[in-house]
């Protein structure tokens, strides 16, 4: 009887395990940014400049999430060796990944191939794309920038294969043959799809056009200018609580940017404030977690409606860290969206609820990659301080954007440096006269993200010479200061960790204090504040 009981118990446990795995509960529900993502099969995810759409599986009939994006050869190269920033882009195809929970993704195939666009004979830019279901012809239409035109490719299934349908020269519509940046937005309440795009030169105008069929061809049925003002790119749209949000980034090339937005009650506007985009609160400290506006997805769960900001980090072309996709949840106060810059967070696709993961790094711009230039900078953007950080000069040359004697606050890492630390830049502490300074970041609970009380570890990597009288990494909270002295010379990058930082009252100040002789030099990178056990 005991053997029979054990056998039955094992069968019950196996059944429960299989049920949980197949329903997704046994899978990891944590989204971790600042990393190269993988599929559930452990294969690299290569998906840039695309979007997520929900279609029915042609075989099961059930709804699935389809994530489309472009696979560039350089994404593979940089993933293998992120110590080199690359200059070119070579199209390897449009990838399609599917999911039932928006966290765990399965690679399906390249749904648009180089052969389909004759890439070998015309190796031009392809990117900024999305897919719309066109009910009139029961076809799926892929819109993608192809050289100086908008290309439309069609397929019978969301899994392709997509074949070129036509190219649209936009000159007669907006005055330039190409769009600036573009995305496809599908209204979750009407199922109508739209192309959201900017003027091809200067990108100071943004348009929305409904996608449909005209004269037997898939086309843009109308044209509504919804913005005319400062140059913007990364144009994309989302809907939340019956309001439409138009979002975009600065014209910063491959680099990260502030998030800008407008709001309207109708997809065609009018968008407010008129021709004056607002900065999304929370995106300022690290330029949208070192990314650009890529696309959004509005998840209508059983308990919450949650908007996912899906940022593109063009790391292979900007050298600004690890990972190509940076996803965070937005929070709202009335109709104002707030950007939650999180390193790691949990998503429950069924309820729409999200929480901060225990593995979250609470430091903003901890790898110093958000800053585009040497800081202080007198060029776009004019900037005196590092994003997210404050440098207080107690003694030494003062910080100024137009004074050649000003200390430079960041260091451009060499290729050898980048084999040890993340990205092109690190914090720089040096001066050509004796100096004393303090570099700090205030971290505290916000209206939407708590900094729980408890024990944390503060870690970083450091490289410094021997000319410091004092150099320390510290954290202050609840009237206590925790510190580790680093005066000893570290000629090579060295990990340092301050353990058991006791955070109280939901706030902590982290920082570096330096007192050095003329010529003292230190670089610090990859600063992390994490709750619980120290990573080894």
Automatic annotation (TrEMBL):
Record keywords, A-Z: Glycosidase, Hydrolase
Stored SUPFAM superfamilies: Arabinanase/levansucrase/invertase
Pfam families in UniProt: Glyco_hydro_43
CDD domains: GH43_RcAra43A-like
Family statement: Belongs to the glycosyl hydrolase 43 family.
Name of the protein in question: Family 43 glycosylhydrolase
Organism: Leeuwenhoekiella parthenopeia
Source species taxonomy: Bacteria, Pseudomonadati, Bacteroidota, Flavobacteriia, Flavobacteriales
């Amino acid at each position: 009887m005991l053997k029979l009981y054990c056998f039955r118990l094992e069968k019950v446990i196996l059944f429960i395990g299989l049920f949980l795995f197949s329903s997704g509960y046994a899978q990891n529900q944590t989204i971790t940014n600042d990393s190269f993502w993988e599929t559930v099969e452990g294969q690299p995810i290569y998906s840039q400049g695309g979007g997520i759409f929900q279609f029915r599986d042609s075989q099961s009939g059930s709804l699935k999430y389809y994530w489309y994006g472009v696979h560039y050869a350089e994404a593979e190269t940089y993933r293998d060796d992120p110590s080199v920033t690359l200059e070119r882009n070579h199209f390897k195809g449009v990838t399609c990944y599917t999911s039932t929970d928006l966290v765990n993704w399965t690679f399906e195939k390249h749904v648009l191939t180089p052969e389909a666009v004759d890439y070998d004979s015309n190796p031009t830019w392809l990117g900024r794309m999305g897919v719309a279901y066109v009910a009139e012809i029961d076809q799926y239409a892929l819109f993608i920038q192809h050289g100086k035109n908008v290309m439309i490719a069609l397929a019978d299934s969301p899994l392709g294969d997509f074949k070129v349908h036509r190219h649209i020269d936009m000159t007669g519509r907006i005055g330039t043959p190409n769009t600036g940046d573009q995305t496809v937005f599908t209204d979750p309440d009407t199922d109508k799809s739209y192309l959201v795009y900017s003027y091809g030169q200067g990108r100071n105008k943004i348009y929305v056009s409904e996608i449909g069929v005209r004269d037997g061809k898939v086309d843009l049925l109308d044209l509504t200018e919804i913005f005319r003002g400062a140059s913007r790119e990364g144009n994309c749209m989302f809907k939340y609580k019956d309001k439409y949000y138009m979002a975009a980034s600065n014209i910063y090339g491959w680099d990260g940017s502030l998030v800008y937005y407008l709001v309207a009650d109708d997809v065609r506007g009018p968008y407010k404030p008129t021709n004056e985009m607002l900065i999304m609160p929370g995106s300022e400290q690290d330029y949208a977690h070192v990314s650009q506006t890529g696309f959004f997805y509005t998840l209508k769960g059983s308990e919450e409606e949650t908007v996912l900001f899906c940022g593109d980090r063009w790391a292979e072309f900007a050298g600004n860290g690890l990972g190509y996709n940076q996803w965070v949840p937005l929070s709202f106060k009335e109709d104002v969206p707030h950007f939650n810059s999180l390193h790691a967070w949990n998503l429950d696709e069924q309820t729409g609820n999200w929480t901060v993961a225990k593995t979250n790094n609470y430091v903003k711009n901890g790898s110093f990659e958000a800053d585009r230039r040497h800081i202080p900078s007198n060029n776009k953007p004019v900037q005196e301080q590092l994003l997210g950080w404050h440098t207080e000069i107690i003694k030494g040359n003062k910080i100024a954007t137009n004074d050649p004697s000003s200390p430079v606050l960041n260091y451009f890492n060499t290729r050898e440096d980048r084999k040890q630390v993340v990205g092109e830049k690190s914090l720089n502490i040096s001066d050509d006269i004796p100096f004393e300074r303090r570099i700090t970041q205030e971290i505290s609970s916000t209206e939407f993200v708590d900094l729980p009380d408890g024990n944390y570890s503060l870690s970083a990597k450091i490289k410094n010479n021997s000319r410091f009288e004092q150099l320390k990494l510290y954290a202050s909270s609840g009237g206590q200061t925790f510190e580790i002295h680093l005066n000893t010379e570290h000629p090579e990058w060295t990990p340092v960790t301050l353990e058991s930082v006791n955070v109280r009252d939901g706030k902590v100040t982290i920082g570096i204090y330096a007192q050095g002789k003329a010529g003292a030099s230190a670089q610090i990178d990859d600063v992390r504040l994490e709750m619980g056990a120290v990573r080894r």
